[in-house]
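FYI - complex with S-adenosylmethionine, inputs then prediction.
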Amino acid sequence: MSDCLYYDRSVSTRISLPMNVSKAPLFPATIMPDKDWWQALWPDPEAVLREVGLEPEMNVVDLCCGDGHFTKPMCQLVYPGKTWALDLDPDLLGRAEQGCRDSPNFHAILGDARELPKQISEPVDFVFMANTFHGVPDKTGLSRAVHRASKPGGRFAIVNWYRRSREETTVLDQPRGPSTALRMDPEDVRQVVEPAGFELKKVIAVGPYHYGAVFLKI
Ligand SMILES: C[S@@+](CC[C@H](N)C(=O)[O-])C[C@H]1O[C@@H](n2cnc3c(N)ncnc32)[C@H](O)[C@@H]1O
C-alpha cells in the first residue's frame, strides 16, 4: 500500500494531491455529471449494488467513485465489511467522504485506478466500477489491476451505458452520457476483460440505459 495515496476518514478531512497523482490524467469522457440528472437516472443506487451481487461482510472497492453516489449505500450494504472509495479528483473524493462521514467502514483513496493494487491494504471480494469503463484507454490493463487487487473468486462488476445513440438516452429531457462512439455492448466488455483473468458470469439490465456485467476472477 502506498501511504501517500491513502487516507482514513478518521484522520483526514482535507485531501492534498501528491505529485505522482497530479500528473495522472483522468480517463477521457468521465467527468462527474450534475447532481440533478444523476439522481433522476439513479434514484436507487442500493438496488443496483444488490443486483450486481454485493452482500454484507464483503470487502469492496468503489473504483472511480466520483462524489459517492454509490459509495454511501455500499458502505451500509457491506457493513461490517470495508469499503474503499477511490478517485483521482480530490474535490469529488472529499464529497464522497462527507456523504459517508457516519460510516465507520469507509476508507478513501486519492489515486489512479490503474494503481489500485498498490493502494489497498488487502485483496478484496468485489470491485465495482460504474459509468467510467467506457473512457478507460487500456481496458485490459485496468482489468489486470483489478485482478491483482482481488481475492481468489473475487468479482468485478462494470456498470456501463448500453450501446445506444446518445440522442436516445435522455434524462430530464436532454440527451445524456458519453458519446455514442464510446459506448460498448456487454460482448465488447467481455472481450477486453476476460484476457485479464476473469470470466463473465452474468449481465443484467440496471436502470433505463445501463447494464451490469459481472465477472469472476479465475
Ligand atoms: C462519470 S464519474 C462516475 C462516478 C461514480 N462511479 C458514479 O457512477 O456515480 C467518473 C469518475 O471517474 C474518475 N476518474 C477518471 N479517471 C480516473 C482515474 N484514472 N483514476 C481514478 N479515478 C478516475 C473521475 O474523477 C470521476 O469521478
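Residues 43 and 207 are 9 Å apart (CA to CA). The radius of gyration is 16 Å.
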